[in-house]
Amino acid sequence: MITLTTSRDPSQRTRSFAKVISRYMNWYYLQRGKLSMEDLFEKSDRIVLIREIKGNPAFLDLYTGNKKSMTMRINVGTIKKEKMDDSPVYFAGRLPFDPVILGAMPKIDAGEKLARKLNLKKIVYARKDGKLIFTFDGREVLTVKLLGVYEG
């Protein structure tokens, strides 16, 4: 299970984004409080940390073990709170990373066939301009502009 948390003392917008994306991606949301990174690594081996710039969520850092494996530079647009189930997440379109590392369905032939068979409710549409549109049951829940993906 992937654990999502924020940097210390996050803004209300960052907390809202964290709660919506954790529900959408089926991640466990952990309020950070005064926990150090070492304490977080004791609780989970896969962590997504949201960092902010001027009160807005700006970076998603993915840690595997206690080593940073990927950083995504983002710009968050629309955030809508919706009741969602824990169905699998499917990414449609070309991405600069493998969605499996985020706990989504794989972008291989088997994952594509399974996605066609299932009546998926959670679909993330990746557009050419880098915009990710998170939908649940055909309704837009979240929009995120992907500005860059950095390894390590």
Topology:
Elements lengths: L2 E4 L5 H14 L2 E2 L7 H7 L2 E8 L2 E9 L2 E13 L9 E4 L16 H9 L4 E5 L4 E6 L2 E13 L1
Parallel strand pairs: 1-2, 1-3, 6-7
Antiparallel strand pairs: 3-4, 4-5, 5-9, 7-8, 8-9
Quickly list its features.
152 residues, alpha/beta, Rossmann fold, 9-stranded mixed beta sheet
Task: Give structural notes.
This protein is an alpha/beta fold and 152 residues long. It has a single domain, classed as Brix domain (Rossmann fold), CATH 3.40.50. 20% of the residues lie in helices and 42% in strands. Strands 2-1-3-4-5-9-8-7-6 form a nine-stranded mixed β-sheet, covered by helices on one side. A hairpin with a 4-residue loop joins strand 7 and strand 8. The longest helix is centred in the N-terminal third of the chain and has 14 residues. The two termini are 20 Å apart. The model has no long low-confidence stretch (mean pLDDT 92). This is Probable Brix domain-containing ribosomal biogenesis protein. Probably involved in the biogenesis of the ribosome. One of its GO terms (biological process) is rRNA processing. Keywords: Ribosome biogenesis. GO terms for molecular function: rRNA binding.
- Kindly name the structural category: alpha/beta
The proportion of residues in beta strands is 35-45%
> What is the CA-based Rg, rounded?
15 Å
User: CATH top level?
Assistant: Alpha Beta
Give a count of the beta strands, DSSP E runs of length 2 or more: 9
Q: What level of helicity do the residues show?
A: 10-25%
**Strand order, sheet with most strands:** 2-1-3-4-5-9-8-7-6
What gap, in angstroms, lies between the N and C termini? Answer: 20 Å
How would you characterize the largest beta sheet?
A: 9 strands, mixed
CATH superfamily: Brix domain
Mean pLDDT: 92
- Unreliable spans are none
**Number of domain modules:** 1
H/E series: EHEHEEEEHEEE
Annotation field: number of helices: 3
The appropriate CATH architecture is 3-Layer(aba) Sandwich
CATH topology: Rossmann fold
GO molecular function: rRNA binding
Protein name: Probable Brix domain-containing ribosomal biogenesis protein
InterPro entries: Brix, Brix_dom_Rbsml_bgen_prot
Function: Probably involved in the biogenesis of the ribosome.
